[in-house]
What does this fold into?
Amino acid sequence: MSMAFSTQEHRSLKPQRGVFFHEIFRKNKLLWSVDVHRMWEGGASTAIAVWLNDMKKSFVSGEDLPQLAAVTVVRGRVETSSASQDYPVSKASYSLLQDLASSYFSYHGRNKDRIVCQRTQLKRLVCI
It folds into this structure.
């Protein structure tokens, strides 16, 4: 008996709202990012750890690093507010990055919705 699903069956199994791989991780020439704004702290920590590990693997295999790496921690009206740093997922993500990557990651100057790392620091991080 085959365990494969038809396309129609697969669509019916897909949740109406959820977090999918293609929604979490983004990667292009200029920016590699992970979006954790809809996650609980544990899920966000796991996604960030996987993202950092994949980044290191990509670099070791010869792929060029982007200009910027970013973790999106909030969305909506609070993006420009300093209160965004007080959200639990924001605090947990920032704390994890500080533990794993020292001072390489920081909140973006104008928008407080992203924790970012510039290419120069990123190179130091993946070479550790």
Observations:
- Residues 1-18 have pLDDT under 50 and may be disordered.
- The chain is about 40% helix and 15% strand.
- The longest strand covers residues 31-35.
